[in-house]
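>> received
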Amino acid sequence: MEIMTPRGRAVVEVDEAAEPRFLFVLTHGSAGGVESPDLLAVRDATVAIGGTVARVLQPFRVAGARAPGSPARQDEAWTSITASLGEKFPGLPLVQGGRSNGARVACRTARAVGAAAVVALAFPLHPPGKPGRSRAQELREAGVDVLVVSGDRDRFGIPERADAARLVVLAGEGHDLNRDPARVGEVVAEWLGPRFS
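>> returned
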């Protein structure tokens, strides 16, 4: 499906659970798409526990850009997307998440969209080689519980345990979380499942 936002067109792939208990809106990183192995594994694991999953290709990627633009513009588009999906799937609690830059968007907008929880895959704590430019405040200010899943070899850094409700660091994984995507999906489902039983 397509959703028009104030910042252009978004494309959404929806996988509905047989008996949905929550809506999980999930997105990509700066230069990625919604077909990355970790996002597909999270989709599969989440649908299996009753989550209807909407994977969002954000407007900047639909337009062919690799950089998301200003946070304010990206967040404006995201808020519009989640509102439209909420209308399409009324009554379902909202969980939102993403990988890398998408995790930042999910954290920044969680309060505004009324999310019940956030899943942050490979949250980019700082630009590579620049640990002094921490983005930990985005995690701390999400206003809801955040699950962070990081690889122990992530060149963007690993958040502190105190900055999230739960931090899972996977051995041998880098920023792309593609060595064992199924494990990423399991971690997310194990955390979300009890919240919506």
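>> The chain has six helices and eight strands.
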